[in-house]
Amino acid sequence: DAEEELRLGYVAVTRAAHRLAVTSYCWSERATPFGPSDYQRTLKEQLEEWGLEVPGWREKPAKGDPNPYDAVDPSRPWPSTETGREAALRLDAAARVRAADPAAPDEGLDMLEAAVVADWDTELDRLLAEARRDRATHLEVRLPSSLSATAVARLREDPEAFARELARPMPRPPSSAARFGTRFHAWVEARFGQQDLFDADDLPGRGDAGIEDEADLKDLVAAFEEGPFGSRVPHQVEAPFSLVLGGQVVRGRIDAVYREADGTFLLVDWKTNRSADADALQLALYRLAWAELHDLAPEEVRTAFYYVRTGRVVEPMDLPGRDQLEAILQGDATAP
Fold first, then answer.
1. Which residues pair with 316 in a beta bridge?
2. Whole-model pTM?
3. Is 252 inside any structural domain?
4. Taking residues 1-8, what's their average pLDDT?
5. Most confidently predicted of 47-56, 222-231, 280-289
6. What is the three-class DSSP state of 29?
7. Domain of 245?
8. Residue 61 domain-assigned?
């Protein structure tokens, strides 16, 4: 025990940066008296040799001496029926605030005191704003610095659900359909000898669904080869774009861009799902971005969904223009 106490004492003395307290207890639960250990006595003698005071020193109580703390009842009623010190201070502060006249001018303050009071007012306004925001039933969220084309579609379809996703983003479960969709887009790129570099968060095919397994992927590849775009070489695949709409950046990638004989362009988005229900808003963003990027009139740019499973090419008409797209991002419920 003495050796262990010496080891712990050495650690304490050598690690203390500013203050070291050496203490022990005198009484046990069985009312057995204890006294200072040998190490404590050695330390006391050393401090006295250095001329330092040793406060609170108590010798070992005599056998049979009563424990002075036995008469103290350690129990406390719960819950407490009395007002604690912290609660009393808060109640007193609240009473003084209610009694104060908020319109009364601050009289008798010099320049420095007035500056301090002004800082208090600013800090109080900030704290009140935070408190009101914490208690608000509605939470305002800012749009991210850039949105994808699919995110703009979600914003238009259900603004409240989109806001909840921004306020509390949740991880999405792994999707085999998205994984095979990405592989299908990669196959199209490799087929036409074009492979762009892109961010991991912007992988093509993330929005595609319905590809169940490896065999289904092979069927899609075969269907694409036999379809209207199987042998047609695109002008560009996975063409990246950035578009500013009402101060909001929208970015994405166009699956394929074809140059027509008359000099116009056809933008095609592959769809691998079984239902032909794609949102034409995606193509409207593509058309506007490509037209503005290449200084073209929107009429010189056509857009289409190509449903690979059925071979259908759907070319939506009356796509919204810039003004209508900006209205969507500004929360106009009447926007198409």
1. none
2. 0.54
3. yes
4. 87
5. 280-289
6. coil
7. 176-329
8. yes
